[in-house]
Structure formats: structure tokens, C-alpha cells
Write the C-alpha cells for this entry.
Amino acid sequence: MTEERRRVAADLRTALRLLVDRPEQVRVEAVDREGGAGAILEVRVAPADVGKIIGREGRTIDALRALVSARSAAEGERYDFELIET
């Protein structure tokens, strides 16, 4: 994983920790896409915090995806956001 992908994952982790009740359980991992065209940011949170990340009618997760998309445009690399339920 490149240094830039680590920074993007760390920035997303910081934002997510502000939204949840169990910030110590927030995990963000940048996984390379097949073919090297960007990365998928896999997010894992405590089961009780999943609703906080999704938000009412999906507004919070949509806003997080918009932030990731804006970061993608600024960096010139494609990042996608996936919430992985454990």
C-alpha cells in the first residue's frame, strides 16, 4: 500500500471515530483493486455503531462517500468506500 493510501485511510478513520460510540473499534483498510486502478477503503465498526455510520436514510454514509470521492478527485486516484459488517 502506498503512503498516500495510508493517509487517505487514516483521514477516513479519524472522521469515523468522531461519529461512533466505540472509536477504538474503527478499522479502515485500503485494499488494492484488481489491475491497480485505485483502492477500496474497507471500513469495519462495532455492530452497534453500524447505524450511526449509515445514518438516517443513508445520509451519513452518502456524505462519507462524497468525501472519499472528493479526495479521489484531488489525488487523481480512485477510492471507493465499503462498510463491512462483522
